[in-house]
Write a structure and sequence with these properties.
It contains no helices and eleven strands. The chain is mainly beta.
Length: about 120
């Protein structure tokens, strides 16, 4: 089993940047696809991005963040990063990371393991 901890959220002005991190503990981190999803008040949970297991490494993004967000993983540090640029007020949400025991980086319907979130607030 893998445990996840997200960090790096904060308050930023529209147009600014933030990088959130997801650190995993436990075995076989490299075997998991890791992704980010978010939830804003009054809205449904939304998958944002995902990166495949180390053997695959492909990535996926929802349309609203393509060209602005970049997901990467550092398997030596058991960490996945989400670099968020050109942030918009509609990106405001609690961001969570999740792990799925699959190779592909396609956005999954759900994750096998989920961590606590980190708040991202974008002021307009």
């Amino acid at each position: 089993e893998v445990q996840l901890q997200a960090s790096g959220g904060g308050l930023v002005q529209a147009g600014g940047s933030l990088r959130v991190s997801c650190v995993a503990s436990g075995d076989r981190f490299a075997d998991y696809a890791i992704g980010w999803f978010r939830q804003a008040p009054g809205k449904q949970r939304e998958g944002v991005s995902c990166i495949g297991a180390a053997a695959n490494g492909n990535t996926s993004y929802i349309d609203s963040v393509k060209g602005r967000f970049t997901i990467t993983r550092d398997n030596t540090k058991n960490t996945v990063y989400l670099q968020m640029n050109k942030l918009k007020s509609e990106d405001t949400a609690v961001y969570f990371c999740g792990a799925k025991q699959t190779v592909t980086g396609a956005l999954p319907g759900d994750y096998d393991h989920r961590g606590q979130g980190t708040q991202v607030t974008v002021s307009s």
